[in-house]
Amino acid sequence: MEENVKQPIVLEKLLTVSSSPHIRSNETTRRIMLDVIIALVPAGLASVYFFGIRALLLILASVVSAVAAEYLSGKIFKRPTTIGDLSAVVTGILLAYNVPVSLPLYMVVFGSFFAIIVVKQFFGGIGSNFMNPALAARAVLVASWPAAMSAFTRPMTDLVSMATPLAGGPSLSIMDMFIGKMPGSLGEVSSLAILIGLIYLLVRKVITIRIPAIYIVTTLVLMIVFGTPFDQLYVQLLGGGLLLGAVFMATDYSSSPSTAKGQVIFALGCGIITAVIRKFGGFPEGVSYSILLMNSATPLIEKLTVGAAFGGAKK
C-alpha cells in the first residue's frame, strides 16, 4: 500500500505568486543582463568621447556602488548574493546614464545605494521591484539636489554650462544632436549610440520593438497636436531622454507588462504622460516620471490583459 501512495508535491518552492515575470532563472537573467550591458556600451563610449574621462568615472562609481549595495543588501535581508546575475551592473550603468557629467560622485553613489537597497531589494530583489530602480533613484536625486541634476554642460569643453535643447538651449543641427554633440545626461546625448544598442537588443531578441516604437510615436504625435512645428519635431525626438528611456528603461522586464496588449497600453501611457509633462508641466523633460507612473500601473494592466488560465473566466 505504502509504495502506491503518491508523495505530496510541495509547490511552495516551485510557484511564485506575483506580477510578471513569473519564470525566473539565474542563467537566463545573467544572459539577458549581459546582452543589455553590451547594448549599453555604445552610449557609454559616446559619453566618454563627448564629455571626457569624468563620464567614465561617474559610470564606474555608479556601477561599483550598485554592486556593493547588491552584496550588502544580501547580508541585510539574509538572502543569497545575486551579484552574479549582473542586474546591479545594469542598474548602475542606467543611473549614470541619467545624470549630468558634472554631478558630484557622492551623489551618484547615494543614488546607486537607493536604487538597489530601497527600490530593488526591499521589495524582494530582481523580478519583484515594481519600479525601475535607476529611474526611481534619478527621481530622488532630482528631488534632493535639483540644481546639480540640471547642471548640464557643453560637450568637448571644460564643463561649460549650457541648457539642453528641450530646455531652450541654443539651436543645434539634426546631425549634431543625432551623434551626440549637445548638452544632456551621459547616456541620452547620442541617439546614434542608442539606436546601435536597440538594433543589438532586437537581433538578440531581448526586447521587441513594440514598447519603444509605440512610446516614441505617441509622444511625437501628441507634441504635434500640442502645437510643435514639424520642423522642430526632431528636438523632441533627439533632444532629451526619449530614446534612452523608450529603449532601455520602459522595456524593463520587472516593471513593465508581459502581455502584448499590456505593453501597448503601457507604451501609450508613457507617451501620453511624457507629452503632457513636456508641454504643460514644470519640467522640460517627462520621460522618467512617465515611465515610473506607468510602472505603478503595471500590476493593474497585467490583471486586465492576462488571459484566463486553462479556459477559466477572467475575474
Description:
By secondary structure, the chain is mainly alpha-helical. It has one domain (26-306): Orthogonal Bundle (Ammonium transporter fold), CATH 1.10.3430. 58% of the residues lie in helices and 0% in strands. It has 13 helices and no strands. α8 (191-203) packs parallel to α11. It is globular and about 55 Å long. The termini are far apart. The relative contact order is 0.12.
Approximately how much helix is present in the residues? 55-70%
Query: Remind me, CATH topology?
Result: Ammonium transporter fold
Tell me the count of domains.
1
Strand content: under 5%
* CA radius of gyration: 20 Å
SSE blueprint and pairings:
Layout (H helix, E strand, L loop, with lengths): L25 H26 L1 H24 L10 H11 L7 H16 L12 H12 L1 H4 L24 H6 L11 H13 L6 H16 L7 H6 L3 H8 L10 H21 L6 H19 L10
Helix pairs in contact: 1-2, 1-3, 1-8, 2-3, 2-4, 3-4, 3-5, 4-5, 5-13, 8-11, 9-11, 9-12, 12-13
What is this entry, summarized?
The protein is an all-alpha fold and about 325 residues long.
Task: Using brief descriptors, characterize the structure shown.
globular, mainly alpha, Ammonium transporter fold, disordered N terminus, about 325 residues
